[in-house]
Design brief:
It is built from nine helices and 14 strands. The chain has a seven-stranded mixed beta sheet with strand order 9-11-8-12-10-13-14, with helices on both faces. A five-stranded mixed beta sheet has the order 1-2-7-5-6, with helices on one face. It is globular and about 55 Å long.
């Protein structure tokens, strides 16, 4: 059968469909080394200093959810993409596409939330744009942000080696569970809120361990499993996670079971994955746990030479593969 020539919702999921769209369609039109690294932020050099430069769009449904809203999400998400390059966030742009008929009160609420998040991270909003489209031509409001920050120490997937430890900074899947419960009106009695938060404190927390930290990434679309697959893509390495070590709330597991989802593939918006040298991993963990954003941090796995790929060592001792999914089960999660 001929290949489909239309875009599906799965193309924006963070899974294999997204990867093929990016690699086979988009990257072919923009051939340059910086973009082809496919990092959360581009690393650029101005004079003698290195900066991280990133952009992102937010189309979450619903726009208000337990623990946050699209405004806070847009600011925190872009800050976090900079932080994952060990960059101190400095400036951002903030652009909106608004559907005619949208509530002015809700717009002001979103803007106030975004402004609070930016002030807390000491980031200035220095540019932006606003467009309004006819009613029915968008879904309430879409936000696009761009950020720039100064890199404080080098990180990158190419630095990862067998023996390195994989750390996650806190509870997994809270964001996706909170959003889906609100979106689908499931009425589930759960206190789980989105973990959306700016991770800029990590710059100062982790700076003393700069030599031992290899890589950082926030597990948003596609969750922890998808990010780990991206880390070792095209490399002769594997990652084995320990199921007993995964920090996941029982309520989150229960909701995922109801929805037929695996928590390891559910989005997070205030967590980070750190790959660190085994010699400093415990010190990194101890430092994270002293901060409110890393109170539940844990070592969840290790980089190995074989087997290649991402694997989960289950509670009964067997291992199962954690493959990159064709498409994420939670569209419009960020």
């Amino acid at each position: 059968m001929p290949k489909s020539r239309t875009i599906s919702i799965g193309h924006g999921s963070g899974g294999q469909l997204s990867n093929r769209l990016i690699r086979d369609v988009i990257l072919r039109r923009f051939p340059n080394k910086i973009l082809h690294r496919l990092e959360d932020s581009a690393e650029i050099k101005l004079n003698t200093k290195k900066y991280a430069f990133t952009t992102d769009s937010y189309v979450i449904d619903p726009i208000f959810f337990p623990g946050g809203d699209i405004g806070k999400l847009a600011i925190c998400g872009t800050i976090n993409d900079l932080v994952m390059k060990a960059a101190r966030p400095l400036y951002m742009s903030f652009s909106m596409i608004i559907e005619a008929g949208f509530s002015m009160n809700e717009l002001e609420r979103i803007l106030e939330s975004a402004a609070r998040a930016a002030r807390a991270a000491k980031v200035d909003i220095v540019a932006g744009d606003t467009k309004v489209v006819n009613k029915g031509k968008a879904d309430k409001i879409f936000i696009t942000t761009t950020g720039i920050g100064q890199i404080t120490f080098p990180v990158g997937a190419r630095r990862i080696n067998a023996g390195d430890k994989v750390i996650v900074s806190g509870m997994i899947a809270d964001h996706g569970v909170a959003v889906m419960n609100a979106r689908l009106n499931l009425g589930l009695k759960t206190a789980i809120k989105s973990d959306v938060a700016a991770l800029d404190p990590a710059i100062d927390l982790l700076a003393p361990f700069a030599r031992g930290i290899k890589f950082m990434r926030d597990p948003t679309r596609g969750g922890v499993a998808s990010v780990l697959n991206e880390i070792i893509e095209n490399r002769s390495l594997g990652i084995i996670l320990d199921e007993k070590s995964l920090p996941i709330r029982k309520q989150a597991v229960a909701v995922c079971n109801i929805l037929g989802l695996d928590p390891l593939y559910v989005a997070n918006e205030g967590k980070m994955i750190i790959v660190a040298d085994r010699m400093c991993a415990e010190r990194v963990l101890d430092r994270l746990r002293r901060h409110r954003l890393g109170r539940h941090a844990r070592v969840i796995g290790e980089v190995v030479e074989s087997p290649e790929g991402v694997w989960l060592k289950t509670a009964i001792g067997s291992i199962r593969p954690l493959l990159l999914l064709e498409a994420e089960g939670l569209p419009r999660i960020c």
